[in-house]
Amino acid sequence: MNQPKRLFDLPYRQLELFPNLNMLNTKVNGQWKAITSKQFIDMVNEVSRGLIAIGVKQGEKVGLISENRLEWNVIDFAIQQVGGVVVAIYPNISDADYEYIFKDANIKVCLVSTDNLYDRINNLKSNLPTLERLYMINPSPGKTNWNELIDAGNTINQTEVEVAKDAVQEDDLVTLIYTSGTTGNPKGVMLSHKNILSNSMAADRPTPTKAYDKSLTFLPACHAYERMIQYLYMYKGMQVYYAESMETIGENMKEIQPHMISAVPRLLEKVYEKIMAKGNELSGIKRKLFFWSVEVGEAYDPDPTKRDFFYDIKYAIAHKLVLSKWKKGLGGNLGAVCSGSAALNQRLMRLYFAAKVNVYEGYGLTEASPLISVNSYQDGVLIGTVGPAIPGVEFKLASDCEIMVKGPNVMLGYYNNPEATAEVLKDGWLYTGDIGEIIDGKFLKIVDRKKEMFKTSGGKYIVPTAIESKMVESDFIEQMMVVGETHKFPAALIVPSYQNLMDWAKANAKDLLSLSKDEFLKSETVYNKIMSEVEKGNIHFGNWEKIKKFAIIPNEFTIDGGELTPTLKLKRKVIAAKYKNEIEMIYQ
User: What residues does the AMP-dependent synthetase/ligase domain cover (predicted)?
Assistant: First the structure.
């Protein structure tokens, strides 16, 4: 088969090249159940016929709200095949955002996964004048099930689907992805088949996997990154397994022994924290060897020319004694973790590479389909950067160091928003809004979001993400948000690692162990401990950038709490408003 031109060509190509592949795998009643490429295509065609039967025409927007699961992919390709536009929406956004998206996209048909989502959209129906049909994947009494959509397609001949497919061109709009955004209404990013497919195929080069290798998927499929990665898996002919839930990822990895996953830094941090917690339970020589090995791993560089002979001897011992067990704990085969959405701290990055679990950090945004650059086994790894540009994509810096991108992956524009489109698309270049630096003429380093940089009252620029990513390298700082615009100095809201502080207190402040969590975190001893960690981080910054004061926040920033976007970025204005009193106290 020739190279695919439309996204829905991927499963047909896979059937031709890898006919015996267990394409998609879901756990049912405790057993993994495989779906072959042929079975998947049959399911997709069933839904496509149903969509034609209810009148979905080329260019019409169809909503899809679901967690990552087999049916998400079936519905995605089914909408594409009839020339529809997939409006992929997060399951955990606000009712106000649902209302805005449904109205902006003029959604008439929507498929959701669960009772909760069905009820939420159904309750909003009086405010959604265009919505005509709502279907649910999970069967539930009194609710329109998607099997009714499939049954409606029994009157449609497959030739109608083939005619619809033939009418779809590679430059046609295939999806609207509404950016979560940290302020204002979401913007609908228009992406074509060519945009996303070119990105998935370009990601083949830096990905060290092959046909029939296994992958585990668990991030939201509606997010541009995970979606592109799933298309990449299909292009490469890999076996895809759906994690049962976010809580079972560790167990599922041991079961299926994946070769590759995509992840966000928070997940990798949590894996690290669990391993370190086990290390803290050790005693005597085993404990000393464990922490010595971790220290050796934290100094690891994937570039062998940057390691000396004596370090390599220490590393060989540390790997044999401790670090090799990390990979076994993740299934034993995991050789590639594609990390995105936010920066992973460099200490952890080195540690994962030392354990031979290679974390390839990349950079992208929805408007670029989304991948722009990535560290890779073929094109090189430079820790602290997001790697070189992927094939076919180029980047450069504007006069103010804003990153500009050009390539077949750059979006068509923002839906119904020509003014916003004109702001970011200029002369074929996408202005990303991120400030960057190019190292060795090849590797891209992200400095900060252009709109998140601020000035102190003294006129000094502060780059908050650079400070935050360095500070959270501490085992005692879980999350952090830098504040201080228009004030004399930068300060911070800090979510500490309660468990690690408790472990520290067992040896250093036993009198605190009887306190409640709230009392514990308010104690002067804990404040001083966090201050000592902040001072360690401060040495990496100029005097005007050093964190002088901070407030301890007892509860983690979360999506459900409204402090994080669905892609785990800080909603800075929301957090600042929520903790307005704490910030005011800092500066009194």
Answer: 30-415
